[in-house]
């Protein structure tokens, strides 16, 4: 039994043509689940249809989401595609290792691509467990969205031979992790943890990165809630 | 010392756009030598230029040839790309093995792509040493010329470049992590976190595992100490 192939998520895609090209690219290599966050030109889209070469009719129904947060709520391991290095402590994978990590996940994985112009925001990257970066010619780096999706899908197809996940560890769904972060941030604010309000987003991003690297399970998220409660209550008695 | 990267040869390409897309695709992954056999719409080509995203200016000068025979005259190992099986007794490679065969060649190699509509003729395939075929989804096979070139170039790049370590992340020394765990355990005990004393070692082991998987840095350990202090103090005020 192998983990299911990763879902592809496009965040802020601009031209429908590029959504179609991404769908065509991924479905050539058997990836059949696409989610779209805030498509600029709307959805459904005729140019997307035209560029997909028929892929949409055979793939799972496309879903549209208002935020990446929402799009990954039911997933367990999510990688953000970035072209430039980000100042975040997260594991960085090249495509073959990224696919291996997705397929080793005991649960459902996704690979997230940003819009054509600017890529993903740091906040969106911070939601993910790790980063996937496609190395290119240092003198000429001009991969478009469809090409990036194609390479990722190809690596997946090559490596999607049945194998068992490396561990029994089942990471929690994103929504449960998010709930923990929201609570933690609230309690930290109550405890005057954030000395400078303007640094609060950065500090929270760093804390997120640390916990996401550990890929906590449901049980561990419950434990972390217990830890907060215990620490919070410990000055009461 | 590795053999030079393979030359890309397009035979009977139709639209200039696709020649440009092929150039852009290959040069992203450092392949800089392109030869064209009988371009239907002529050469040079404005649509090709427009689609190449600047690749032509940095690549070796493109050469145009009247036959594949002529285009491969100075080369030592040539593979023909075909989508469908041909009734020819030749070695058939998937992309990784094809690239390895090219780079293992003691001499110069090339990978040949046919036109958009019909691919290579059997006569052209017969000129080559072997066949490269890109496996796709059995239910949806719709790779265009630029995509096929992209995948071949990517496989070449992956096998032709030294790898850099994925991240600069420096995990904290064990002693610092241990100090954090000791403090956390003490504070949790004060907060009546451990309901059953006999389970305390197991619970702490699970918490350790979670944090160790994240491999916190020195800075992150300091942040975690700050988190404990903030949570502890939050009921005081």
What is the general shape of chain A?
globular
Mean pLDDT of chain A, to the nearest integer, reads 90
Strands in their spatial order, largest beta sheet of chain A:
3-2-1-6-4-7-5
Write down the oligomeric state. homodimer
Distance between the termini of chain A: 50 Å
Classify the beta-strand content of chain A into a percent band. 5-15%
State the order of secondary-structure elements of chain A, H for helix, E for strand. EHEHHEHEEHEHEHHHH
Structural class of chain A: alpha/beta
Number of strands of chain A: 7
Low-confidence stretches of chain A: 162-166
- Major pleated sheet of chain A: 7 strands, parallel
Describe the structure.
Two copies of one chain form a homodimer. Chain A is an alpha/beta fold and 237 residues long. Helix content of chain A is 44%, strand content 11%. The first copy, chain A, contains ten helices and seven strands. Chain A has helices at 16-28, 46-51, 55-58, 68-71, 95-104, 122-126, 145-159, 174-190, 200-213, 218-233; strands spanning 7-11, 34-37, 63-65, 77-81, 92-93, 109-113, 130-132. Chain A has a seven-stranded parallel beta sheet with strand order 3-2-1-6-4-7-5. In chain A, α1 runs parallel beside α7 and α8 (174-190) runs parallel beside α10. Chain A is globular. The interface between A and B is large, with 65 and 65 residues.
List keywords for this structure.
homodimer, 237 residues, alpha/beta, seven-stranded parallel sheet, 7 strands, 44% helix
In short:
Chain A has 10 helices and 7 strands. The first copy, chain A, has helices spanning 16-28, 46-51, 55-58, 68-71, 95-104, 122-126, 145-159, 174-190, 200-213, 218-233; strands at residues 7-11, 34-37, 63-65, 77-81, 92-93, 109-113, 130-132.
């Amino acid at each position: 039994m192998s983990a299911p192939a990763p879902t592809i998520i496009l965040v802020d895609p601009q031209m429908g043509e590029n959504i179609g090209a991404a769908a065509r690219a991924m479905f050539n290599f058997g990836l059949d689940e696409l989610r779209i966050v805030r498509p600029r030109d709307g959805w459904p889209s005729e140019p997307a249809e035209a560029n997909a070469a028929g892929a949409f009719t055979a793939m799972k129904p496309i879903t549209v989401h208002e935020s990446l947060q929402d799009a990954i709520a039911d997933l367990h391991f999510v990688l953000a595609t970035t072209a430039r290095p980000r100042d975040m402590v997260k594991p960085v994978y090249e495509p073959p290792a990224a696919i291996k990590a997705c397929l080793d996940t005991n649960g459902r994985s996704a690979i997230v691509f940003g819009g054509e112009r600017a890529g993903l925001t740091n906040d969106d990257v911070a939601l993910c467990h790790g980063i996937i970066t496609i190395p290119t010619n240092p003198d000429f780096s001009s991969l478009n969205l469809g090409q990036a999706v194609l390479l990722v899908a190809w690596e997946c197809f090559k490596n999607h031979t049945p194998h068992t996940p490396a561990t029994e560890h089942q990471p929690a769904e994103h929504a449960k992790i998010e709930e923990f972060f929201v609570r933690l941030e609230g309690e930290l604010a109550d405890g005057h943890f954030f000395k400078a309000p303007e640094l609060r987003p950065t500090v929270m991003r760093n804390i997120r990165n640390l916990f996401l690297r550990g890929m906590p399970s449901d049980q561990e998220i419950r434990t972390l809630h217990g830890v907060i409660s215990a620490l919070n209550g410990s000055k009461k008695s």
